[in-house]
Design a protein that fits this description.
The chain has two helices and five strands. By secondary structure, it is an alpha+beta fold.
């Protein structure tokens, strides 16, 4: 028969083991998420180096970004910019469940066009936004 002190000790030990396991899982999850930006960057650099994406045509990167988002969906954004001023990104803004795709290139005349994406990754709404430099 277990005494009350033995029962309390066993309960504390089990509680401590469970807490340690939860903490380990949280640390592992966070570590994996912190690696995602570097992985996505390496993936895009590799694809650009192999000619699989056209970095001079930011609009061509939408579907690649969308595919990456399916894998790395805990990121808040995936972006690419060039020295020529062209920029593109896929993002989910705080408080907004929709994915947003934005592009600034020669065709936008210096404006940033931002699109809301459907669940399937299709552009369904466009607006112009102003970028502010800090």
């Amino acid at each position: 028969m277990l005494s009350a002190s033995q029962g309390a000790r066993i309960s504390r030990d089990l509680g401590q083991r469970n807490l340690s396991e939860i903490q380990r899982r949280v640390v592992d999850h966070l570590a994996a998420n912190f690696e995602y930006p570097a992985r996505v960057t390496a993936l895009n650099v590799g694809m650009a180096t192999r000619g699989e994406i056209d970095i001079d045509n930011p609009r061509s990167m939408l579907f690649g970004f969308y595919d990456q988002w399916q894998v790395f969906n805990t990121l808040s954004a995936i972006a690419w910019g060039g020295k020529d001023g062209n920029v593109t990104w896929l993002a989910r803004y705080t408080g907004d469940e929709n994915l947003r795709y934005a592009v600034q290139d020669h065709a936008t005349g210096g404006e940033v066009y931002e699109y809301r994406l459907s669940e399937e990754g299709f552009l369904i709404y466009r607006r112009s936004i102003a970028l502010t430099m800090m």
